[in-house]
Design goal:
Length: 363
Amino acid sequence: MHGLPDGFGERLAALCAVDAQTGDHAGLVRSADLLAGWATDDGLAVEVRATPEGPLVIASTRGAGADRTLLIGHHDVVYPAGTAAARPLAARDGRVLGPGVADMRGGLLVGLAALAGLARDPQGPHGAAELWIVPDEEARSWAPACLDEWRGADRALCLECGRADGAIVTARKACTWLTLEAVGRDAHAGTERDEGRSALMALVREAVRIEDELHGGRPGVQATVTQLNGGSGMNTVPGHATASVDLRADTAADLAWVVAELGRFAAHDDIAVTRSDEPGFPPLDRDAALAEHTLALLAAVDAPAREQTAAGASDGSWSSSIGVPTVDGLGPIGGGDHGPDEWIDPASVAPRIEVVRRLAGGR
Ligand SMILES: [Zn+2]
């Protein structure tokens, strides 16, 4: 396909022809079979490990060095069965479009191509380079099951797509999603209105406090009420209500702060308000040395040398949380994730492969 390295477009088309929504075991097995087959063709060592969420694919190679580089990706996508047939890989207006091209099949193939380059140089200065392709990233707000096996690595290169302006992701916000529950008392809204206690109105008052006071309460803190539900009938004072809140912050400390502030509920007459306590995603902390090295390599291949802090989480947040220096957004430049016009820039693929190969220690 125009602008893509040899063979890359064929592999991307084959991968995008598979429906592999999170939890679709048959689709994930087909996707894993393709990836494992290509890794074998490329001269890599391959392990396909069955897990309750679907197959985990680990492709690796080793040079003469002693260091260890992780390449991190996921092969599940968000799209339901039928999407692959409806939207095969296509080129339009200089972009390549298809389900999962940016999030993150294009990135997986960048990782494979980078490892293939290292495998062609078995006496090179690089150490171990391992591409971990998990099956369940899109529907998970907890750590990947293999996280412990990433401990001690020298660096992690996460292959989510580069941003639309070419930026890599050198930091990500911490985030969590909490549920609020209010319990008051149902009562007839006409004849016994004063006997009722509106749980819904209690959460409305809390929602206003959250958006007015907690959102922006510290630099980088975002607090958004995303759902509000309550009531049992049109003529009943709503005695029960729930809300969900999306919280994001630049640091773990700021996330803990906004979670604690969220729980300082106002007194609501005879209405109990509680919140859940999901830990959510840790931040991806910027590693200055790895970030600067990556930007220098991008500049050296005439690619955009920009960085960004992303509001969303990825498995790079987890590798960072165990102390592995992590940089993300090393997949092809792209966007439109999770939508009908998801795209990548084909011209960005070859430079990204080169930069990932070099970051893994390739000469
Ligand atoms: Zn992704």
